[in-house]
Amino acid sequence: MSPEPAFAPVSYPVLRDAETDAVAERARIRGHAEGYATGRRAADRELAAERARLADDAERRERQGREAVARAVAALDAARARVEALALPALHTVDASLTAAAIELAEAVLARELTDHPGSVRDRLRNALTGLDAAEVVAVRLHPADRDLVRAVDTGPAHPIAADPALAPGDVVVELADGLLDARIDAALRRARAALAEAAS
């Protein structure tokens, strides 16, 4: 055996008590909470920055879209103006001619349809009375031949029917307690001509 001293590890007892453990636990919890809060703030900053970037991108794309639409509308307006400058004078001339021809044709068809056709006269009379309160109607005036046709076919409406030689065949004038309902053919054609002329101008 060697006379030299041998070294051996020494174990020191750990002294722990409840207070030391509580301090350590509180430090651990505080460290965890501070770390979580720091991480949360960093994540919130990153999220806010990403949202701002996305909002900027969306606004830029929307602005570009509006500008593209505005350019397209301007191009369409310019094209429409060029087409109108070329076509409208000719179209107005053709439109006026077609309108006049359509009115003349309508007059001819109406004159033919209203001649000796009791059904047409009854239809005109029914249309003139549609929507009127029976109590408002004082009398109905028709061309004498139309009055005779209506009376020959049926008893007609429950209103007095008077013959008016000033009216043309197919004309109907309804006398109301407070005025007249003018359902004459020529009056309707005048209104149609005026409406077409106004639409064309």
TrEMBL record:
Keyword Transport (UniProt): yes
A GO BP annotation: bacterial-type flagellum organization
GO CC annotation terms, alphabetical: cytosol
Keywords assigned: Bacterial flagellum biogenesis, Bacterial flagellum protein export, Cell projection, Cilium, Flagellum, Protein transport, Transport
Keyword Transferase: no
Function: Needed for flagellar regrowth and assembly.
Protein family: Belongs to the FliH family.
Protein's UniProt name: Flagellar assembly protein FliH
Organism: Diaminobutyricimonas aerilata
